Amino acid sequence: MQKAQRIIKTYRRNRMIVCTICALVTLASTLSMRFISQRNLNQQRVVQFANHAVEELDKVLLPLQAGSEVLLPLIGLPCSVAHLPLRKQAAKLQTVRSIGLVQDGTLYCSSIFGYRNVPVVDILAELPAPQPLLRLTIDRALIKGSPVLIQWTPAAGSSNAGGHGDD
Questions:
Q1: Residue 123 · residue 116 · CB < 8 Å
Q2: Higher pLDDT residue, 150 or 162?
Q3: What is the pTM assigned to this prediction?
Q4: Number of structural domains in the chain
Q5: Do the Cβ atoms of 67 and 98 come closer than 8 Å?
Q6: Minimal CA–CA distance to 62: which of 156, 134, 141, 157?
Q7: In Å, what is the CA distance from 63 to each residue of 19, 44, 66, 113?
Q8: For position 33, which CATH number holds?
Q9: Nearest to 153 by CA among 115, 112, 96
Q10: Which positions fall inside the Putative cyclic diguanylate phosphodiesterase CSS motif-containing domain (predicted)?
Q11: Could you tell me if residue 145 is left (phi over 0), alpha (psi between -120 and 50 degrees) or otherwise beta?
């Protein structure tokens, strides 16, 4: 009788081990599949959010690109002549806080402050640049410490002249 009980006990123990192993394998495979599918879903959401952010930023910047065609001819004009059109354009473009004109590497006219004589390098080290530029930086003039998006549009034929808008 003891031998039969021992055989039954061994059989039950082996059956319990096999069942436990099967359950653990099933649990591990289910969790890994869930992890992979959730990771892929999160990655898709990140891509969708990034695309949405780019589209919204493009919508904000589109009027600025159209406005640069009006502003670039003002470069070289005295600030007393260019200041009113700058202010009007800044008022039209609701996302712009200020517009500045740069000639020979110097910010000489601003839609907010009027005549200025500030090296544009003091505003942003990468300016003036030969190609269009978009940089997120910190405002040091109007609302100190607030984030500001600077868009630089170079004048045709000159890398030291152009216009910048503070969004």
A1: no
A2: 150
A3: 0.61
A4: 1
A5: no
A6: 134
A7: 67, 30, 5, 22
A8: 3.30.450.20
A9: 96
A10: 43-161
A11: left
